[in-house]
Design brief:
Distance between the termini: 74 Å
Structural class: mainly alpha
Low-confidence stretches: none
Shape: elongated
Mean pLDDT: 81
Helix content: 40-55%
Number of strands: 0
Number of helices: 3
Radius of gyration: 34 Å
Length: 100
């Protein structure tokens, strides 16, 4: 209480304008317009037909080569699925959903 009385009685103890914090800036609202990627990036992934499933032909491929082909095919499929999900996120329903 005594501090309040002194600040009113003694002008040297009163707060000055320089002691006050600056006023907070007012927020500014900016409208953001969604921007779609180029059309070639919004195309669904191409999924070519796979290798023939004839057991006689599979037996002719060496095991190490066949394992490499399988790894490549799985990676291609995962990337194609990821691309389709991105396209469907930008434009819903553009690519068919993969049956799980």
């Amino acid at each position: 209480m005594s501090g309040l009385l002194l600040s009113t009685a003694l002008p040297g103890c009163a707060r000055r304008a320089a002691d006050l914090p600056p006023p907070a800036p007012l927020p500014i609202a900016v409208e953001v317009k969604p921007q779609l990627p180029p059309a070639e990036l919004l195309a669904c992934a191409d999924r070519p037909a796979g290798l023939p499933e004839d057991p006689a032909l599979i037996a002719q491929i060496p095991t190490a080569i066949r394992a490499g082909i399988i790894r490549l095919a799985r990676a291609f499929g995962a990337n194609a699925d990821r691309h389709d999900r991105l396209v469907n996120w930008s434009t819903p329903g553009a690519c068919p959903e993969k049956a799980r």
